[in-house]
Automatic annotation (TrEMBL), chain B:
Listed GO CC annotations: plasma membrane
Protein's recorded name: Na(+)/H(+) antiporter subunit C
Swiss-Prot/TrEMBL keywords: Cell membrane, Membrane, Transmembrane, Transmembrane helix
Origin organism lineage: Bacteria, Bacillati, Bacillota, Bacilli, Bacillales
Keyword Membrane belongs to the record: yes
Chief localisation class: membrane
Gene3D superfamilies: 1.10.287.3510
Organism for this UniProt entry: Psychrobacillus lasiicapitis
Protein's membrane topology: Multi-pass membrane protein
Residue stretches spanning the membrane: 6-21, 28-47, 67-92
InterPro entries on file: CPA3_antiporter_subunitC (IPR050601), NUOK/Mnh_C1-like (IPR039428)
Record-stated family: Belongs to the CPA3 antiporters (TC 2.A.63) subunit C family.
Compartment list: Cell membrane
Length: 494, 112
């Protein structure tokens, strides 16, 4: 089904972003327009998601060039669920930014670049062409380079150089992999690639190329190759760090799922085993990192890493149930990680300290905030009825069915580590003796607590309303485990 | 011809790797620039260096040259231009603020 509406998640943020560049001095106007845009995008995503359920996978051939010759956008449930949650999280992070980011940032094009970032993210989710995926990645990355350096503090400049260089290198590997793939198969349309790989058989050469893609996307997702992640996610202002923690690694995860379920699924004994090993090591090393540090931002960053490992366990197991579990978990993780980063940033804003043993008894001063920390702890640990539970249950179930007991054990031990690392924050900083006297208390701004509450509502809704979204998730998982559905929607019926 | 170009790509990648592994930021940036040229050549070569006519149906006869790699390279060049410009400015700012262009000195304090 052709439909022009699926280009809107890419085009609207770019156009509005360009307009906002010209509205630089009018901070209030920028705030209103960017928030309205994001809310509109949430609405559009919901509409497209529901349309897919009735009409099947939607696609848009740009310029009327029919696939496999032109570039196209493809919207299936898997992509749209990512788009939907990404837009919701961005809208909420914007609300947090209103009261925390400061006017100097707002006047230096903060809102336009957030919109460019989300345009790149949405484009990466929706594109049906591997080279176009590279382009959308770069749109997102360039915006993220600007956002991470905005403010120009010493630590930011130091960390952002590493972040930029690592990403240039991984983009280079992406191009190399694309060149080899084009040289071998003569196409870059994902559905067409899948068809040709199936015809020609996934020989050693194609498997090697697939491993190049694995390296590229692992660098972006923080799967095993996450050495750059904790440093660079802990330097920017809170709202930006929350956006990065919630969205950027998920784009890499999306690309991994897409390539290894649609294109390179013929040699699971090599590729999926490798993904499984990488996921396992990520879980272990991430867990060590989450316990080792005292800095709340670093603890949060290592929690991102653990979640990446957990989600990729679902890809390594590669059954329909495990895909469902991973999708639930990704959705949960975007919301809960944004919440965790906002909470970490708020703790730093309230106390002026970054280490957990320098804060204490915050629940006495800020009771509501304390309870929110409790909610995020339970949610990330996967305690029902919060949102982490469903995903963990399904991934665990699939791992047992397929006999991947090592991954199962690692995944669930890591959940205990997550619980422990967050309980450390809770017990040290939220409970304990109150060291801030009522006179010295920094008032907790409404603009800071409201987004955190909204995210908390999101995690509760995802948990209690799992039944409500299960239709979308099972449709997404069905497409992932049957590549022919996707290929038929793109190449069939011309 | 393909072999020659592949050898050239190899040399470029070797040079770029050497540059990227040095401690000086400017050399690292030059390294990434050389690296991007290498990959552009690679795309061109793997698309096939066969001589053919321009791919315009009414203007020329078959065989046609594959135009897609050139379109890909054009896009990639624009992107690498933007990224290189950005990182040059970033390196200059970092040099101004941190007072050094040595990556070892930019490791950051280990108090965290």
């Amino acid at each position: 089904m052709m439909n022009n509406i699926i280009v809107l998640p890419l085009i609207i943020p770019i156009m509005v972003g360009v307009i906002l560049v010209f509205l630089r001095p009018y901070v209030k106007t920028q705030r209103v327009i960017s928030l309205v845009t994001m809310l509109g995008m949430v609405g559009i995503s919901l509409y497209i998601l529901n349309k897919i359920q009735t009409d099947g996978i939607l696609r848009l051939d740009f310029g009327g060039w029919e696939p496999p010759f032109g570039i196209l956008f493809v919207a299936d449930s898997f992509a749209m669920l990512f788009v939907l949650i990404a837009n919701i999280v961005t809208a909420i992070c914007l609300i947090y930014a209103f009261s925390s980011i400061g006017e100097s940032h707002e006047k230096m094009f903060f809102y336009p670049f957030v919109l460019f970032l989300i345009a790149g993210v949405n484009g990466s989710f929706l594109t049906g062409d591997l080279f176009n995926l590279f382009v959308c990645f770069e749109v997102m990355l360039l915006a993220s380079y600007v956002l991470i350096t905005l403010g120009g503090k010493k630590a930011q400049l130091r960390e952002s150089i590493k972040y930029v260089v690592i990403n240039i290198l991984s983009s280079w590997f992406f191009l190399v992999a694309l060149a080899y793939l084009y040289g071998t198969l003569g196409t870059l349309n994902m559905a067409h690639l899948s068809e040709r790989v199936a015809e020609a058989g996934q020989g050693p050469l194609l498997t090697t190329i697939s491993i190049l893609f694995l390296i590229v996307f692992s660098l972006k997702a923080g799967l095993l190759l996450f050495f750059w992640l904790p440093g660079s996610y802990s330097v920017p202002p809170t709202a930006i760090a929350a956006l990065f923690g919630a969205l950027l690694t998920k784009v890499g995860i999306y690309a991994l799922f897409r390539t290894f379920t649609l294109i390179f699924y013929h040699e699971p004994s090599i590729t999926h085993t490798l993904i499984g090993i990488m996921a396992g090591v990520t879980l272990v090393v991430g867990s060590i990192g989450a316990i080792a540090y005292q800095d709340v931002r670093l603890i949060s960053s290592y929690n991102v890493v653990i979640a990446v490992g957990f989600i990729l366990v679902g890809l390594a197991v590669a059954t329909q149930t495990s895909f469902e579990g991973s999708i639930y978990y990704v959705m949960h993780d975007m919301i809960a990680k944004a919440m965790l980063f906002l909470i970490a940033g708020t703790m730093i804003a309230l106390t002026g300290k970054t280490k957990i043993d320098e804060m204490s008894g915050l629940i006495r001063n800020y009771p509501l905030f304390g309870w929110m920390v409790f909610v995020v702890t339970c949610s990330l640990a996967g305690i029902p009825p919060l949102s982490g539970f469903v995903g963990k249950l399904l991934v665990g179930e699939a791992a047992i069915e397929s006999g991947s007991y090592v991954l199962l054990a690692l995944a669930f031990i890591s959940s205990i580590v997550v619980l422990y690392s967050l309980l450390r924050i809770f017990l040290n900083s939220i409970f304990g003796e109150t060291i801030i006297s009522p006179e010295d208390e920094v008032p907790l701004k409404k603009g800071m607590i409201v987004p955190i509450i909204l995210l908390a509502i999101g995690t509760v809704f995802l948990g209690l309303g799992a039944e409500f979204i299960s239709g979308y998730v099972s449709d997404a998982a069905r497409t992932l485990s049957n590549p022919s559905v996707y290929i038929e929607a793109v190449l069939g019926g011309n | 011809m393909e072999t020659l170009i592949i050898l050239l790509i190899g040399i470029l990648v070797a040079v770029a790797t050497y540059l990227i592994l040095s401690r000086n930021i400017i050399r690292v940036i030059l390294g990434t620039a050389v690296l991007s040229h290498a990959v552009h050549l690679l795309i061109l070569t793997l698309g096939g260096l066969k001589t053919g006519n321009v791919p315009l149906l009414t203007e020329a006869d078959a065989p046609y040259t594959d135009a897609l790699p050139q379109a890909l390279i054009l896009t990639a060049i624009v992107i690498s231009f933007a990224v290189t410009a950005f990182i040059l400015v970033l390196a200059y700012r970092a040099y101004q603020d941190n007072g050094t262009d040595d990556l070892d000195a930019l490791r950051g304090t280990n108090d965290e």
